[in-house]
């Protein structure tokens, strides 16, 4: 009985170890899995060794294509692997859309996009014509990060992308059309001019505004009415595009519409409007800009208002000195003293000296000293 008991125990222990061993065998990682983990952890030398081994042993697997995509990015960033990079580029191009799609898929991972986005973009640009169809599909896709990334790649590709981007201008998706227009604007190729002119009559107001802005940047004379009118559009993206266009391309912007836009619920619209107002250099803009400086909750909007007040110059000095004496908020005070220092009017010296003497905030004290030094 005792012998049977110990035999049973030994058998049970053996079975346990057998199951553990089988489990280990089942969970053993492949070279590809190790390589991908190292790639995600930014251990690129280790990733390179594992991925190269996987491709060597398993050249015709779906994972091999993904391994090639990771390797080409690693080689791109390694000065000692440029010959391998060129060889890998030939392999990727030979794969057609599959190879480019595998590279694009890397951007879906936010960590990879943050660390290697510029390198991946450079690889896709170098692939040239072979990148165009996958990039088009990406720009028509649903992933916002990939859509924006595809448009950025097109912008960097230059003339080779122009014909493809022009063909997209008839896409039913307004977002796709506006992204294509943005890329054509950045490339600046005159072949796009006639196609862009047709988009001035597009059913989408956003597309109209984007096309008018692009043509203006390409030195083509267009009416600015469509841009100015869109400042009051019900669609926030259209208002943002219009406000940005006014800030960037219209030399004598309409002050009344821009002052109204300073109350827009969208911070980007307010920011661009504040920037554009500075081009008017109108004393009528002082009070609305000071209101923004005091009350807006978004720092970049306040910063743009301060720059526009500086652009107006001497007429803002007295109102800013009056505000200086009433304001307790350190952030607002800092912006005021910076503007007064940059304008350089001597009448601001005594008020600034008072601020300096009373300041308990070290940054405010430092900025006030800088402003006084600029004036004196």
Q: Can you walk me through this structure?
A:
- The protein has 376 residues and is mainly alpha-helical.
- The chain is 74% helix and 0% strand.
- The chain is built from 23 helices and no strands.
- The chain has helices spanning 2-27, 31-40, 44-57, 62-76, 82-95, 97-105, 110-127, 129-139, 144-157, 162-168, 174-187, 193-198, 205-217, 225-229, 236-249, 255-261, 267-277, 286-295, 299-312, 317-326, 330-343, 349-358, 362-375.
- α5 (82-95) crosses α6, α6 (97-105) crosses α8 and α7 (110-127) runs parallel beside α9.
- The longest helix has 26 residues, at 2-27.
- The radius of gyration is 30 Å and the shape is globular.
- The protein starts with a helix and ends with a helix.
- 37% of the residues are buried.
- Residues 15-20 have low confidence and may be disordered.
């Amino acid at each position: 009985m005792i012998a049977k008991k110990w035999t049973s125990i030994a058998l049970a222990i053996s079975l346990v170890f057998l199951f553990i061993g089988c489990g280990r065998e089942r969970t053993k990682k492949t070279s590809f899995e190790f390589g991908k983990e190292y790639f995600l952890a930014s251990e690129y030398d280790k990733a390179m060794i594992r991925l190269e081994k996987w491709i060597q042993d398993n050249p015709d697997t779906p994972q091999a294509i993904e391994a090639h995509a990771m390797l080409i990015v690693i080689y791109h960033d390694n000065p000692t692997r440029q010959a391998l990079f060129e060889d890998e580029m030939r392999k990727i191009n030979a794969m057609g859309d599959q190879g480019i799609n595998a590279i694009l898929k890397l951007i879906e991972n936010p960590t990879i996009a943050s660390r290697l986005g510029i390198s991946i973009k450079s690889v896709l640009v170098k692939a040239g014509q072979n990148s165009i169809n996958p990039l088009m599909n990406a720009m028509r896709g649903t992933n916002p990060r990939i859509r924006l990334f595809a448009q950025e790649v097109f912008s960097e590709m230059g003339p080779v992308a122009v014909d493809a981007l022009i063909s997209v201008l008839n896409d039913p998706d307004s977002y796709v059309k506006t992204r294509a227009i943005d890329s054509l604007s950045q490339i600046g190729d005159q072949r796009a001019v006639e196609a862009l002119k047709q988009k001035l009559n597009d059913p989408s107001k956003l597309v109209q505004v984007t096309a008018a802005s692009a043509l203006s940047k390409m030195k083509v004379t267009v009416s600015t009415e469509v841009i100015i009118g869109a400042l009051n559009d019900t669609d926030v993206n259209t208002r943002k595009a219009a406000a940005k266009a006014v800030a960037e391309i219209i030399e004598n912007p309409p002050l009344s519409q821009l002052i109204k836009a300073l109350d827009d619920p969208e911070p980007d619209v307010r920011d661009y409007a504040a920037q554009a107002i500075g081009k008017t250099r109108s004393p009528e803009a002082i009070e609305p800009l000071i209101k923004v400086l005091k009350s807006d909750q978004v720092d970049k909007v306040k910063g743009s208002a301060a720059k526009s007040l500086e652009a107006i110059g001497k007429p803002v000095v007295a109102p800013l000195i009056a505000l200086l004496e009433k304001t307790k908020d350190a952030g607002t005070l800092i912006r005021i003293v910076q503007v007064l220092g940059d304008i350089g009017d001597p009448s601001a010296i005594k008020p600034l000296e008072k601020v300096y003497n009373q300041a308990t905030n070290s940054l405010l004290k430092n900025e006030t000293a800088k402003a006084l030094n600029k004036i004196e």
